[in-house]
Write a structure and sequence with these properties.
Chain B: InterPro entries: THDP-binding (IPR029061), Transketo_C/PFOR_II (IPR009014), Transketolase-like_Pyr-bd (IPR005475), Transketolase_C (IPR033248). Chain B: Keywords: Oxidoreductase, Pyruvate, Thiamine pyrophosphate. Chain B: Its cofactor is thiamine diphosphate. Chain B: It comes from Klenkia brasiliensis. Chain B: This is Pyruvate dehydrogenase E1 component beta subunit. The complex is a heterodimer of chains A (about 375) and B (about 350). Chain A has about 375 residues and is α/β, with parallel strands linked by helices. Chain A folds into two domains: about 325 residues, Thiamin diphosphate (ThDP)-binding fold, Pyr/PP domains (Rossmann fold, 3-Layer(aba) Sandwich); about 25 residues. Helix content of chain A is about 45%, strand content about 10%. Chain A is built from 14 helices and eight strands. In chain A, strand 7, helix 10 and strand 8 form a beta-alpha-beta unit. The radius of gyration of chain A is 22 Å and the shape is globular. Chain B has about 350 residues and is α/β, with parallel strands linked by helices. Chain B has two domains: about 180 residues, Rossmann fold, CATH 3.40.50.970; about 130 residues, Rossmann fold. Chain B is about 35% helix and about 20% strand. Chain B has 14 helices and 14 strands. Chain B has a seven-stranded mixed beta sheet with strand order 3-2-4-5-7-6-12, sandwiched between helices. A five-stranded mixed beta sheet of chain B has the order 9-11-10-13-14, sandwiched between helices. The longest helix of chain B has 15 residues. Chain B is globular. Classes of the chains: A alpha/beta (about 375), B alpha/beta (about 350). The interface between A and B is large, with 37 and 37 residues. The complex binds thiamine diphosphate and magnesium ion. Magnesium ion binds next to strand 5 of chain A.
Chain lengths: ~375, ~350
């Protein structure tokens, strides 16, 4: 019985009443690591590409583990773990073209990685040193947004700019399942639809908004909402990096060619806590996590690579070693990070320095000196 | 000198024991829900999670999911639904996870909750309470640390309360729940873990009453929220130097009970106004105007002094964050300068 269910219905929780029949779920790699075909979404990937996708998945997880450890040791203020969502993020990130612009939430470390953002530039934000050390223009990866949903409107506006410039590019907004309840997000959907804006809404349905399960956000599967706004919605197995890559590529291509927005629901699971401040055992059962562990996005690609002979033990050992080096570099870089200048809060309140703020800055410095004496 | 307001609390300390500010709020929520079926709570993660700051705690287990209701992430929806429920005769208590996210709900707060009673000529009212944590000090950066009390205090039709003590927070909450008007109830994050005694049997603490928390002849410090506690601490340090400060806490920002503030200024002749929010167009500007516009002006021996947050967004780094808002040493220093300034 279980075996049969898993064949047709490979994502746990899919039997829950609010879920649609599983033919809607785009999948190219089963949880067991078996490559399957989908009538609408195909993907040609070389063995080399498969290995590099694996490398990305494994390295961002290693980064995430190290960051969590650093937070536990008091080196970071907070950390939002991406564990379980690596495939959704790497798949989406790797689908982006150089000119495409990404608008993340606070959890898109995997997408940051694919945009060439240095992990330390993300860590510096969580350490409280700055608001993200990367250059959003150069990396085409906007700064993190913590106010739920706001970035969907930014991406839509940005996409309308792309449209005006007739540029060969698209914008992608990342959002969570919880964010879909936010008015701003729904307004973004309306704007994107009516203006045919070249934007992809990439929703990682990780089943929770902090403690609140998806059932409290939606009565229908999220991807079905898109129809009401007038654009396509697709549900993809978010733990299948190949399917996510294929679906996101198609959506971006559609946007670039002027056919308007797409909503992608990457069906996945937040394996860790919401952030390091959270304790998920307060609101969810251990069984659920155990079930999702069987769907681990990294394990399934590893199974595929090794069973098909596309990668050998030496390759995996190499990635592990690279992961350890990365972790060591992150640790060292974090501990060596210089503290921000003591007057930084006066620096960018306005584009130009106003007289009032300059005066407050001067008074602040004089006052501080008074204490030092 | 004596801490006036804490006297009554101290008498019952032995019977009741200490509790935290959050526990006191929870006790108030529980009592209100037990006493009146119309009272219910709604907000993000207030259910099994127990609230982002742990205030609702186990209430969902005691009162059920309908009365301690987890909502979709939609602050506008939360407040709008509460307005609707209030119009229908319920007594909703909203929790907005961070006061910064009242921004999402402003239409329902400012254009709806605050205006409906007036626009319908008093035919209906909106008896709701909007509880929300505000302030900095937790390393939460620019969009999770603001002190927006002056925005609300500026809107006719809203009552705004900023409880600063464990002993009063429960009674103020009960009074806010009883109140027929929409009440914005601002809880400073740094107060949640502070301890004190909630007097047994003490019930409602009326809104709209300024409290003199300490008396001293040399100067008056008016402060709100966590700055009240910080000013009281400063006053103790100053006392050791021979400077005696009166500390006044408006508690309810709108409607303001200005009498005790003006009286204190008349007695001491010097006044320091302390708030965490940026100074520019802040609440203490209103207090300064009330003093300057009354006969208390003639008692002033030195210009009114304001000590406020800097006029910049809250930085993330802990060292910068604490430099942004008045700290104990800043209050002591400002008060000392003011008290010793030549008339
Ligand atoms: C407007 C707003 N409301 C509330 C919050 C507090 N908050 C932070 S994360 C979060 C849950 C978000 O859930 P979801 O959109 O599913 O994203 P996930 O964290 O699961 O990736 C909430 C309620 C916020 N940051 N912004
Ligand atoms: Mg989520």
């Amino acid at each position: 019985m279980t075996a049969v269910r898993e064949m047709v219905d490979p994502v746990p929780g899919a039997a829950a009443p609010h879920l649609p029949a599983q033919p809607d779920l785009v999948q190219l790699l089963t949880p067991e690591g078996e490559r399957v075909e989908h009538p609408e979404y195909s993907l040609d990937v070389t063995d080399e590409e498969l290995r590099s996708l694996y490398r990305d998945l494994a390295l961002v997880r290693r980064w995430d583990v190290e960051a969590t450890a650093l937070q536990r040791q008091g080196e970071l203020g907070i950390w939002a773990s991406l564990q379980g969502q690596e495939a959704a993020q790497i798949g989406a990130g790797r689908a982006l073209g150089e000119a495409d612009m990404a608008f993340p939430t606070y959890r898109e470390h995997g997408v940051a990685w694919t945009r060439g953002v240095d992990p330390l530039d993300v860590i510096s934000l969580f350490r409280g040193n700055d608001l993200g050390g990367w250059d959003p223009v150069a990396t085409r990866f906007n700064l993190y947004t913590v106010v739920i949903g706001a970035q969907c409107l930014h991406a839509t506006g940005y996409a309308m700019g792309i449209q005006r410039d007739t540029a060969d590019a698209a914008a992608i907004a990342f959002l969570g399942d919880g964010a879909t309840s936010q008015g701003e997000v729904n307004e973004a959907f309306i704007w994107a639809a009516t203006f045919d804006a070249p934007v992809v809404f990439f929703c990682q349905n990780n089943q929770y908004a902090i403690s609140v399960p998806i059932e409290r956000q939606s009565k229908v599967p999220l991807f079905q909402r898109a129809a009401g706004f007038g654009f396509p919605g697709v549900r993809v197995d978010g733990n299948d990096v190949l399917a996510v890559l294929a679906v996101t590529r198609a959506a971006l291509a559609r946007a670039r060619e002027g056919s308007g927005p797409t909503f992608i629901e990457a069906f996945t699971y937040r394996m860790g806590a919401h952030t390091t401040s959270d304790d998920p055992t307060r609101y969810r059962l251990a069984d659920e996590l155990e079930e999702w562990k069987l769907r681990d996005p990294i394990a399934r690609l590893k199974a595929h690579l090794s069973r098909s002979g596309k990668a050998d033990a030496e390759f995996f050992a190499g990635v592990d070693a690279e992961g350890d080096e990365l972790a060591a570099r992150i640790r060292k870089g974090t501990l060596e990070m210089p503290d921000p200048a003591g007057t930084e809060m006066f620096d960018h309140v306005y584009a130009e320095q106003t007289e009032e703020i300059a005066a407050q800055r001067a008074a602040f410095l004089a006052y501080q000196e008074g204490f030092e004496k | 000198m004596t801490a006036v307001a804490e006297n009554t609390a101290a008498d019952t300390a032995t019977e009741r024991g200490e509790m935290t500010y959050s526990e006191a709020i929870r006790e108030g929520l529980a009592e209100a829900m037990a006493a009146d079926d119309r009272v219910f709570m709604l907000g993000e993660d207030v259910g099994v999670y127990g609230g982002a700051f742990g205030v609702s705690g186990d209430l969902v287990h005691r009162f059920g999911k309908d009365r301690v209701r987890d909502t979709p992430i939609s602050e506008l929806g939360i407040v709008g639904a509460a307005v609707g429920a209030a119009l229908a005769g319920m007594r909703p208590i909203v929790e907005i996870q961070f006061s910064d996210f009242t921004c999402q709900a402003m239409d329902q707060i400012v254009n709806q909750a605050a205006k409906i009673h007036f626009m319908l000529g008093g035919a209906v009212s909106v008896p709701m309470v909007l509880r929300t944590p505000l302030g900095s000090g937790t390393g939460a950066a620019a969009q999770h640390s603001q002190s927006l009390e002056a925005w609300f205090a500026h809107v006719p039709g809203l009552k705004v309360v900023m409880p600063s003590t464990v002993s009063e927070v429960k009674g103020l909450l009960l009074a806010a729940i009883d109140d027929p008007n929409p009440v914005v109830f601002l809880e400073h994050k740094l107060l949640y873990r502070t301890k004190g005694v909630v007097p047994a049997g003490a019930d409602r603490v009326p809104l709209g009453k300024t409290v003199v928390r300490r008396e001293g002849a040399d100067l008056t410090i008016v402060a709100t929220g966590v700055m009240v506690n910080r000013s009281l601490e400063a006053a103790e340090q100053l006392a050791a130097e021979g400077i005696e400060a009166t500390v006044v806490d408006p508690v309810t920002l709108t409607p303001l009970d200005e009498g005790p503030i003006l009286d204190a200024v008349r007695r001491t002749g010097r006044v320091l106004l302390v708030q965490e929010a940026p100074g520019h167009v802040g609440y203490m500007g209103e207090i300064a105007a009330r003093i300057a516009g009354s006969s208390a002006l003639y008692s002033l021996e030195a210009p009114i002094k304001r000590l406020c947050g800097l006029d910049a967004p809250m930085p993330y780094a802990p060292a910068l964050e604490s430099a942004m808002v008045p700290q104990l040493a800043d209050i002591v220093s400002a008060a000392r300068t003011l008290a010793t300034q030549e008339a």
